[in-house]
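Support request, please re-run this one:
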Amino acid sequence: MGSPFPDVLDLGHHGDAEVGAGLADFAVNVRADTPPRWLAEIVAESLTRIAAYPDSSRARSAVARRHGRRDGEVLLTSGAAEAFVLLARVLRPRKAVVVHPQFTEPEAALRAAGHEVHRVVLSGAFAFDACLVPDDADLVMIGNPTNPTSVLHPAAGIRALLRPGRTVVVDEAFMDCVPGEPESLAGDGRVVVLRSLTKTWGLAGLRAGYVLAPEPLVGALAAAQPLWAVSTPALAAIEACMGERAAAETGRWAAELTAHRAYLTDGLLALGLHVVPGASASFVCARAGDGVRDALRAEGFAVRRGDTFPGLGPEWIRVAVRTPEATDPLLTTLARILSVS
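Re-run finished. Output below.
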């Protein structure tokens, strides 16, 4: 299934580019009011050790314990973005497939490394079916939950992609938005899983993430990674975010997020917008109509444009989940915009 959109889409466009002075931020899908104080204090304390080279052993072991993996199956990275670049440089796919709409960095990294990319573009409710992927694809990259649609794909559907000679990469940057993470494949040693601390813990500027993969691939990725790629403060944050305190806080936040997302979704539906059903991440994707994003911006609200995602267009917007108190002014403004359009 080919993409109806040309390859000239700006794959490097991200939500932070939407935010400007004086704008209410509904574009960046990072949890608000983060990092929490206890985590900030741990990061600050790590600065007392920055004269020494980073030692990743404790953080790597913490990640392995968190997901029931061996230390050798964990690679710590400078955010998930570095992981995409490393995979693109190390793997030599004959036919690389990226499932869209999704985060555009996987395709951008593959293209930058000189790989031809074949797109499988979902439509309708954006549900995934492994039958859509060509049989000869030897690399498949998919998000779960998917950015920007917020759709959570069943783990069984992604496992259906597995076959000898094929690498399946799942971007689970938003999986901790899902209470209990029932569809996570982080414990499945046959799948390459990418995780990030950016969204839940508000650490975009620190750059902290990791890869879970078979040991031979982790070794190859590590060989391609610069020495000491992950800083001491990032390592401290990774270790802390794998602990029991972080797990409990994540569970509470995911439950609260579920309620706040329902409030936003109900408000958008009441205004007559089409909202992608089954949203599971920290944002929703809605078809609002041409010009709505610009009109919201003129009224002081930043939302993520949809036309840089293969499979969407200018009538689509991604809206970050905020508290009902923050969401109400957005909905009121949107109602006014739609009433005069």
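The chain has eleven helices and twelve strands. The chain has two domains: 15-33+247-340, 37-243.
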